[in-house]
Batch of 2 targets.
Target 1
Amino acid sequence: MSAQETSAQGIDARETKAVAAEPETLVAVEDVHTYYGKSHILHGVSLHVCRGEVVGLLGRNGVGKSTTLKTIMGLVRPAEGKVLLDGKPVGGLPAHRLARLGIGYVPEDRRIFRHLTVMENLRTGLDRGGVTEARKHALLDKVFTYFPRLAERRSQAGGTLSGGEQQMLAIARAMMLEPKIILLDEPTEGLMPRMVSQIRTIIEALHQEGVAILLVEQNVPLTLEASRRVYFMEKGMIRHHAPAAGLSVHDPIVQQYLGV
């Protein structure tokens, strides 16, 4: 075999390896149009999140970021386009079915059950078919390790918790479902810096466990630090897509879509 042929084979092998290493898409949104009544909110939104990947979705208030998450979660049905999970269309499924298929959701307003205790809130994600008692205990132990404050308040009503504690509970409840991906909508809004730091730590811990995250967040430094890639939205459309590592809060593209 000639040196040229050997070199060509080596290139082919490297290319094959690179293709094999390409991350697998977990959730894909393809040309989605969503309406609230007659109001056209999402105008052909397309994005994707790979397995175990943290992706940021940035934009000013009112551009359609939360609606994008609600559309993926089945809380809003797209008028056109597709939502895919593991390559299969799931756009017409209700939210509870999507939760069982592996999509967790932490809404902007948290939506914890205010009159239920911390433990009762967590059990809404635990009491499902196919979960053994041993697995339930393991999941509880894990979230109480991440959120020791919740362990201290396990018998306390959700509505009496502080804002930061309620956010912890909302994330912990989503974790009970052992999701493949968690849709996080403004998780640090209104929180003290210490709580913001803890939310950042939890995002990293989930990432290390292989849980994908689609993060909507006004805290741009946190989003750029936590994410592998970011999408920028404007007027219901994805306007720009870039690796997060190459961006800073002072980058012209960040200022264009987020600056006042």
Target 2
Amino acid sequence: MDGMSGVALVVGGASGIGRACVDALENVGWEAVVADLKPDRDPPAGITLDVRDRDGVRGAIEQVLESHAQIGCVVYAAGVARVTRLVDIGTAEWELVTAVNLTGAFNVLTACVPHMGRGGSFTLISSVDSQFPVAGLAHYSAAKAGGEALVRGAALELGHLGIRCNAVLPGVVRTPLMASTLDRPGISEAFVAKTPLGRLGTGPDIASVVAFLASPAAGWVTGVSLAVDGGMSLKEHPALLDGAFPG
């Protein structure tokens, strides 16, 4: 693809939506590096990374730069979720969810920016839950909303460098992160019923949009939170807390 410069770094790229983003980016010509707690590639194409460790993130970026002159595209797909009533969220759970979904995005973004040139892009995988919260996901929704605010601030501050920052908001996608929830009786059917396009999402549904945002075709797109959800955000979400469904 014309206009690409540098490597594509996909954080959280070993599974789920992140893995689909790696495939989509490589399919259009990017060379991708996977950074993950358990990367599915050997170095230098795979780097072990805990996004909560700011010094570790900086070290990982240095590893990337040992074999690549520049970072052209960053996708932040690391994430973790728990379904817990607000009043029952403990300190450790709050810190885990916010650290991975929000602070980790900050750590990666700030470490990468000095090594990105004009035309570079940063894309955060957020969630429609950031704008349409679900009972039981208050901490997750708050962290995702914060990540989108971070993206907008970054778009404002980095625009003069030619670096674009956007967020993609998936609806319900069957991934390892969502498997335990979707396997509960009635949950998948309830989400499909609330989705105008009549199905759950797939990794490639999200990844194709991510690849677009990383491309020159999106060269005048920055600071955007783009829902990719089959229309689910047009309707009220199903409940997830215990008691809403049997089993």
